[in-house]
Design goal:
Blueprint (H helix, E strand, L loop, with lengths): L3 E3 L4 E3 L10 H7 L2 H7 L9 H6 L2
Antiparallel strand pairs: 1-2
């Protein structure tokens, strides 16, 4: 996946994060809609994904 976008008059660089490397508990504890949506993509650390999703 590219880490930049270059157009005619614009150049943007950004870091790419593999969401599978993020612990979902951190995002779930944030208790914001954005964090909860992102937590679906994270590592559940052996927890049953269905149980985690029921929290929502």
């Amino acid at each position: 996946m590219p880490d930049r976008f270059e157009g005619l008059d614009t150049h943007h660089r950004y870091g790419v994060v593999d969401m599978r490397s993020v612990n979902c508990e951190y995002l779930i504890k944030r208790d914001t809609p954005e964090a909860l949506v992102l937590s679906i993509l994270c590592d559940f650390k052996g927890h049953d994904p269905q149980e985690i999703v029921k929290i929502f």
